[in-house]
Amino acid sequence: MPWGYAAAAAVGGLASMSAAGKQADAAGEAGRLSQAQYNQTRADLTPYREAGNVALSDLQGRMPELLQPFGREQFQESPAYQFNLEQGTKAIEKAAAKRGTYYAPATLQDIGKYSQGVASNEFQNAFGNYQTNMGNIWNRLYGLTGMGQSAANQTGAFGAAATGQQGGYMTDAGAARAAGTVGAANAFTGAVGDYQNQQMLNNILAKNQQSSVSGPNAYRGSYDYGLGE
Q1: Distance between CA 123 and CA 226 in Å, rounded?
Q2: What percent of the chain clears pLDDT 90, i.e. is strictly above it?
Q3: What is the pLDDT of residues 174-218, one digit of tens each?
Q4: Helix and strand tally (H, E) in the chain?
Q5: Which of 56, 67, 95, 112 is deepest in the core (most CB within 10 A)?
Q6: What is the DSSP string of 143-172?
């Protein structure tokens, strides 16, 4: 094949491969940007996921406490009950000491009655405070676990989206390179076809010219010219 056709095939093939390479590189760069964005988003959400994990672990460890029914032990540990009992008892003892009856049976009876009255009055308040305290612990820890779960869900969603994008970019890059290969092959094939068509045309023209020279009237003019002389 003459160099002109070969040069045309080479130029067309190189142009097709170059364009395909640029498209593939652009798709690859888009995939890298998608991965970098996912990595950044994952890093941004990591503290929230970790906080949720810590809160979930703490919540699981506290479940026996949170599920413990309110009873005498919880009531006696109530700060309000302990404070009122202590302050009232001190007041009774102080008054008895001033009267000189600190060790008198009546003083012990007064302390006993006061203790019973405080217990009766403070039980419901202590129960309400206990429920509120346990509820606050649950709500705060559960809120943190929910935040961590939300961050984990978002990370998963971003990861799935990034995977889909990168898969699409990889497909685009492969399609671009394949198109470049096909384009280069088409350029070569086209150049070969053009060359063959030109050769066919040249052969037809050559045969027509040969037929016109070697036909029955090819030398008639010169022959007649000779007779005329």
Answers
A1: 150
A2: 19
A3: 666 666 565 555 555 655 555 556 566 667 777 777 666 555 554
A4: 5, 0
A5: 56
A6: HHHHHHHHHHHHHHHHHHHHHHHHHHHHHH
Give ∠ CA 17-20-26 in degrees, rounded to 5: 140
**Domain range list for the chain:** 3-228
Residue 20: Cβ within 10 Å count: 21
Q: Please give the Cα distance from 88 to 46 (Å, whole number).
A: 53
Residues in the chain: 229
Q: What's phi and psi for 213, nearest 5 deg?
A: -80, -40
For residue 104, give the 3-state DSSP assignment.
coil
DSSP code for 1: -
